[in-house]
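DM from R.C. (forwarded with permission)

"hey, sorry to bug you on a friday — could you get me a structure for this? deadline for the figure draft is monday and I only need the backbone to look sensible"
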Amino acid sequence: MAHHYHSGGTHQSYPSPTVVGVHFRVGKKIGEGSFGVIYEGVNLINNQPIAIKFEPRKTDAPQLRDEFRTYKIMAGTPGIPSVHYFGQEGMHNVLVIDLLGHSLEDLFNICRRKFSVKTVAILAKQMITRVQAVHDHNLIYRDIKPDNFLVGRPHTKYANFVYMVDFGMAKLYRDPKTMQHIPYREKKSLSGTARYMSVNTHLGREQSRRDDLESLGHVFMYFLRGSLPWQGLKAATNKQKYEKIGEKKQTTPVKELCEGFPEEFGVYLTYSRKLGFEDAPDYDYLRSLFDNVLQKIDAQDDGVCDWMLSENRGRLECHDQKLRPADVARLNTARGTTSQRQSDRYQQGNVSHEASRTSHQLSSTHPSRTRINPSGSQQLLNPGHKYSGRDDITRPQRHNIAAQPANKRGLWDKLAEFLMCRSCTS
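My reply, with the result:
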């Protein structure tokens, strides 16, 4: 399963109950995250595969209850997994959602850390649509990264349909009843993943729809280039590292970042960076940019992405089945095809890759999640987990709705009231 929830340094022991929520059978453990662990399982009523997340009830940064609420808000939205259950099992909160396939980060690694222009254009259209759906539900996502976009399960009709998961950092950007936008603020703590976050987020500015879209633009260029210019920067402290990343983003011209690729990628990034704090993005226009890209390279949005090509299918099977390289070679030989990837008129030569590339395993670890305060002090949320030197930073302080004072709960309460009214009139 591609819900890649990686260890953030927490090492709690988790029970393995046979069944949770009356009819969800727990299977094998398939991943970890800062919140806890995740298992695959099966719905005993309809025999459908599901994913089961466990989180300690006494965690300092509870996430699953708010994630459950967000999934309920987004219920029925294409590309958002269905939520089936939230409850308590012993000392743990449990969330049950659809089981999905690989993350785009996994598929990127399987394709040797390069996607073709065609694949990125196809993905871009879907990813913009998913982010638009989140925004249409009055939410901003705030942690755009390839790990949080998954495709459907293999060998299903949704195998190349992009899903969005992990809504633990989502936040209302407007009142769902009055549509009043949240106010602009500065000196905000960083939240998101530094590699992909917007320039304004680095500058401590309140996030809005524009920041999700800019982060998508950084992801698109990561897929095309294989890496971003602000990866691998060295610094003595986390705070200094994040400052360096932000400075490099600000000083790297869009034209230079997108050099060697269709101009539409630069147009997209420039557009998103020029949006005002409360501006409503023109999502149709942004999607049309990538239709133009496909037309330029004489390609179709046929759903055929790089990981489906014969040269990559063997590595995909190796990843799925943990086969040895010799087994993969036999698979490719038996298949009798050695087709090369479709040549791309827009390819950039000699893009430097990170010196060491480790395979992106389900059990691989991500660096400790950190909150950086405006004062510069940092709080390691997973004490004892050493800084890995990578540029990932997320802030898992979740909005614990029940624990918030009344004046902090207004938007969520209004959203609940709005949804109840809408369900009564529908």
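R.C.: lifesaver. The radius of gyration is 21 Å.
me: no worries. The CA atoms of residues 343 and 398 lie 45 Å apart.
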